[in-house]
């Protein structure tokens, strides 16, 4: 399961990964930093469509996926994103407040 | 020629528009705020591929296109982007410095 290192994370890849409403929703759901079971991140999104979203976010360096037994746990790579692109995650969260 | 108003610009659309190396390159080329003739923004990119990039950036609210006679002028909607998503354009420009 490929996870780019912090230094390998590219802004253009992060933009591409975040350029989808479900993937923005995932980032917001993970914003607390807590690791969540993949089934509880965005429970309203059909599971069949999520596999591609996890991969896109993981390969871009936005999330970290950790298998444990038959379960998959997900967390936002907030430290890495904040270090590389200060303010980016805050923008995503601020937009949610503006929209609600 | 559709240009969303400032209030209509959506972060997810901006992310999707910026999720391509050429489109990030275009934003950097326009960062000064100066309006450029479309042929001089990214002169190393084949013109045939640019039409789709202008449209993606325009429809997301990232650039403004102004036809004048048979020419097309382009500028970054920096004021609108800074007002809606403070720090986003700076992130794009900072990454350029880090990469060079």
UniProtKB/TrEMBL annotation, chains A, B:
Xref: Gene3D superfamilies: Winged helix-like DNA-binding domain superfamily/Winged helix DNA-binding domain
Record-linked Pfam families: HTH_20
Residue stretches making up the HTH arsR-type domain: 3-96
Family annotation (SUPFAM superfamilies): Winged helix' DNA-binding domain
UniProt entry keywords in alphabetical sequence: DNA-binding, Transcription, Transcription regulation
Molecular function GO labels: DNA binding; DNA-binding transcription factor activity
InterPro entries for the chain: ArsR-like_HTH, HTH_ArsR_DNA-bd_dom, HTH_MetalResp_TranReg, WH-like_DNA-bd_sf, WH_DNA-bd_sf
UniProt feature coiled coil, ranges: none
Protein name: Helix-turn-helix transcriptional regulator
Organism: Nonomuraea zeae
